[in-house]
Amino acid sequence: MTMDSGLRDSCPECAAPVAPQDRFCEACGRNLRVQRTPVGGPVTARCACGGAEFDGEGFCARCGRARVAVRDRVEFVLPGVAGVSDRGRRRQRNEDSMAFGRVRGRGVAVVVCDGVASSERAEQASQTAVDTAVDVLLTGLQSGADAEAATADAVTAANGAVARLARPEAAEVAPSCTFVSAVVTDDSATVGWVGDSRAYLVAGTGAARLTTDDTWAAQLVAEGVLTEEEALTDRRAHVLSRWLGADAGAVEPQSVTFMVETPGLLVLCSDGLWNYVPEPEDLLAVLPRGVPPVEVARGLVDVALEAGGHDNITVVVIQLRGGNGS
Amino acid sequence: MGLEFGVEVFQNEYLPQGAGQVDAIVTVTAGGTGAPGREVEPAAAAEVVVIDTSGSMDYPPTKLAAAKRATAAAVDALRDGVRFAVVAGTDTARVVYPNGPGMEVAGPATRAAAKKAVNRLHADGGTAMGQWLLLADRLFAGQDAELRHAILLTDGENQHETPERLTEVLEHVAGGFTCDCRGVGTNWRVAELRRISEALLGSVDIVADPADLAEDFRSMAVAAMGKAVADVSLRLWTPEHAEVRFLKQAAPTLVDLTGWRVESAPRVGDYPTGAWAAGESRDYHLCVRVRPAGVGDRMLASRVSLVDPAGAVLGQGRVLAVWTDDVALSTRINAEVAQHTGQAELASAIREGLEARRAGDAERATARLGRAVRLAHETGNTDTARLLAGVVEVQDAPTGTVRLRRQVADADEMTLDTRSTVTRRIGRA
User: Any stretches that span the bilayer, and where are they (chain B) (predicted)?
Assistant: First the structure.
């Protein structure tokens, strides 16, 4: 599924004609300054029974079946930001989710979450988390809120929403997920994270990892117990020390804010990608050049698939303009 | 008017692959507690008291005397402004009060006049309850009242009318009014009164001692007048290829509503629930058969709405089906569903046991009543357990080991029979 991009001359909700300077659609009231990926993730237009009518809760008006999410391969494209999420070659389901949006004249907000495979309904956890968090971040962009504060609020809201999915009698498998977000304006970017989903910055000929994994292995590396190489192969490499979910308690993200001075790319990804290209220079070596963000994302997902695709792979690429305006 | 209804659904929505039966307990609670403007205006209510004056009511004469006192108590409990009438039933039916056509408006003078007319009644003649109900229905039809409630009292069998005729009458009058039925003494038939009360969405009970009648009538009239909204229907939407196997009221009493479905739109059926008081709560057991979907699919098996006569939705809930290959999920038993399934089985075990006992089949009676003792024990239905103990000697309740009692008072047996449909909810917060 691909979303169309570029400036609109018709309302995306009701198709009424709109002018580029309009802030709201005069026909249906939709906010035209905000464009975002669909809430609830990608869904089919038709039910398996052939019905095309769904009620407000997404149930087919004819056969009652819930609208099906088509998660195996998802592509979303908005101006200046694109994401690709793929089930990979080994997993039954794609439990990664991504959501992003753009507020005209303000900036872009992106969230990627990776459902924890050992928890139940992991894809519901990650989808709920990205939907909840991106709402908070987009609201923050519209009101001009501090990006780090908005990121912390987004994590609190997403953590609460995921925690509410848990069944009290099955606390040990409470739905849970990781979290990485970006809030990007013309001149600055804020990245926040919980868990082991990552963000990389690519500018000119250099690349840098912006996040540190919340895993037991990473903690041991930080304490000097393991080397980076040992940590990668250690069985605890992916054991999370922090996550979102009912058993996570109160969670505050780690975050980093930097000034955007030169054009470049911000890459948010789940471990389905970075397992194969852990170091910034590994990523740089395989990064497609001179193509729009969606091609970059597709290229990186292909790299992971060709390397084995052992896990779900999600990559969101954001173009940084470096003060040129977006 | 205009109560909000809360609808809560209790179920295990997870089904194993290929399964298509979805069970849910739907708890409906009428909101509010008689907030201003939410009461039905007194003029909008109508009450008919139907009193059996067949010859047997004179044996012993205390029966008719008690019935008169009870009718007086019910009349006294009517609010000023309520339309009312009193009907005397034999093998025909006649209006005892008012003298003129139609109904009278309750007030000090009319209440006194009605009681005077009731006092002059004497017992003579047969029993044809269908005639009584038809007259009540005609009286209600002349009134523009939202709440239409009747009390029917009898002491005997419906001897002067065929069961088929009664069935025809019930089909004709159902939906016209609600009716609570009371049997006095032990010469009436539980099954007969239950048919009437179920068709007319009311209760049925035994009043073994005529002395208790007055208080019973008073509380029925008060409860009927306390209803805040009338003619509420339960509306079920079900998907294509689905079938409502049954819809039963499961608490406070068991009432099978399945046969009362009226199609209101494609895939939509309405079931009458009668009138509701503010704060009143009832449980419904819904069983829907749907066409199984694939593992991982999620389906709306039914949308349950409460609707008023104009079709306005007063509350809504949904019953889901999710197919899974996770046995731990699909084998979970929902406590509410189990409780009400157990109580429905308890009621049928009691009825079958009593029937077998009457037919002289001691073996079957022992087995069914033993099963009932065990179910009453398991579902925590202590009232029913106590009534069962009047009919069987309980040796071990957990295993349902019982012995039939040789001497059983008719009143004990009939009380057990009538109250077998009174259910108990499991404790909820």
Answer: none
